[in-house]
Amino acid sequence: MSDEPEKLADGFFAGSITTRERACFEAGIKLGALFHSILRFPFKNEKSSLISIQEGFNTSFKAQPYVKDVDIKIVPPEDGKYTKSHEFDYGIIQDYMVDVTLKLNYKGIDLVAKIKWAPELNYPLMYIEEIT
Amino acid sequence: MSDEPEKLADGFFAGSITTRERACFEAGIKLGALFHSILRFPFKNEKSSLISIQEGFNTSFKAQPYVKDVDIKIVPPEDGKYTKSHEFDYGIIQDYMVDVTLKLNYKGIDLVAKIKWAPELNYPLMYIEEIT
Amino acid sequence: MSDEPEKLADGFFAGSITTRERACFEAGIKLGALFHSILRFPFKNEKSSLISIQEGFNTSFKAQPYVKDVDIKIVPPEDGKYTKSHEFDYGIIQDYMVDVTLKLNYKGIDLVAKIKWAPELNYPLMYIEEIT
Amino acid sequence: MSDEPEKLADGFFAGSITTRERACFEAGIKLGALFHSILRFPFKNEKSSLISIQEGFNTSFKAQPYVKDVDIKIVPPEDGKYTKSHEFDYGIIQDYMVDVTLKLNYKGIDLVAKIKWAPELNYPLMYIEEIT
């Protein structure tokens, strides 16, 4: 594989940026984009249905540069809300159902980044759990 | 299944609306939402990768009300553009790659709606191919 | 303006489709797409901020074919939740905050379509309020 | 303003993460999310229309934590392509039209991040231009 394009891209960054900082930036871009992509997809609250959707998403986001692995989980609330009882009663992927683990390797830096709903903050928290 | 919610929803519509017109409206909503949901997902231009992504999408959109079947195809251009030769060279689902067939049954009306790229219009055309 | 492209598009539709049905389909596509586009935008819960965002959205969607007018309102819940008290405490446009009125004229058919949160259904209801 | 939530969030991050790395991560999240949010909005290729849309977007994304300023520009290609000559001939915000400058201040770190179309890469490049 040619590394010309990577060098070209590198030229746009501030000179003082470290490889670790670049890895953190990449992780942020990927989580931000992934999160906005998967929200609002419909689902049936059955294991086989959720697995098929998750697998499609994982296959997709694994195609991106620097991604070693990605594990996207859709976790509907266990309140029976999505047991279909009428026509409009199916699930939609909402922010509080999303649980993501993303493993990147950016030029030798290994990084594990996550999206997890933080009920204390009422917010989908994105964070870097490990970096080496 | 309770049909209360459907009756409730019906009450919001103009009295002169026919069941066929409602079916057409439903088809439009679903195509509009589906199209905007699947754009910009990354993919590797390999058959197995595309199939996994397509299956996930199909499983998802089959969960929606009135949907009998849905067939979403991602058709990358056959120009070798997405053969990975450098880090940034992966595919992104673009409007001109999307090919969708959606079969609805809305209260007895059967309808086949499609999204197809119309190169003459440079536009992703959405249309109703059959209605009975 | 040339009407060639419209004729071209017409050729894809089932022959039995009426102009009213086409208008309903168009309304559905536009509401489905619009709804998915505006969700998840951040906002400050101040009148001037909401007005600027709404105006930008309205200007955008008025550019589409057949649209006579569109009025998109973001209505945050009046519970003080979005009074900024910490860094993560800003608003995100959620489905239950969206209120849309879309006026279309499709080949002589006038149509008013809406998106309104239906608390009874826990669902953003899309419907056609008037068609003439 | 309470800083409890920020401390809570901090607790999720790897201990070795520096403030600069956190700032880079935040910049990535914001660019990734912003980019996916603004794509596919329709527009009329007139100055006043583009300005109204841009202002709405800017107002929105300024509401986010740590954002000092944001300047989103939609730059349609100057090829006359979006001069309306028929019903389907309006613009849609595409990746190659997006030009963004985002200024963050994260706990004393000032950072300028950008999205710019890189024709050499056929790719919307996101990068950090300055960090201090």
Average pLDDT score of chain A: 90
**Biggest beta-sheet profile of chain A:** 4 strands, antiparallel
The residue fraction in helices of chain A comes out at 25-40%
Distance between the termini of chain A: 25 Å
Strand order of the largest sheet of chain A: 2-4-5-6
Largest interface chains and counts:
A-D, 39 and 39 residues
Rg over CA atoms of chain A: 17 Å
Shape of chain A: elongated
SSE arrangement of chain A, N to C: HHEHEEEEE
- The quaternary organization reads as homotetramer
Give the DSSP E fraction of chain A (strand runs of 2 or more residues). Answer: 25-35%
**Structure classification of chain A:** alpha+beta
Number of strands of chain A: 6
Separate helix tally of chain A: 3
Q: Low-confidence parts of chain A lasting 5 or more residues at pLDDT below 50?
A: none
Task: Record keyword descriptors for this entry.
two-stranded antiparallel sheet, 3 helices, homotetramer, alpha+beta, 132 residues
Summarize the structure in short.
Four copies of one chain form a homotetramer. By secondary structure, chain A is α+β, with helices and mostly antiparallel strands.
Structural overview:
The structure is a homotetramer of 132-residue chains. In chain A, the strands form two sheets. In chain A, strands 2-4-5-6 form a four-stranded antiparallel sheet. The first copy, chain A, is of the alpha+beta class and 132 residues long. Helices cover 33% and strands 30% of the residues of chain A. The radius of gyration of chain A is 17 Å and the shape is elongated. In chain A, strand 5 (109-118) and strand 6 form a beta hairpin. The model of chain A has no long low-confidence stretch (mean pLDDT 90). The interface between A and B is large, with 37 and 37 residues.
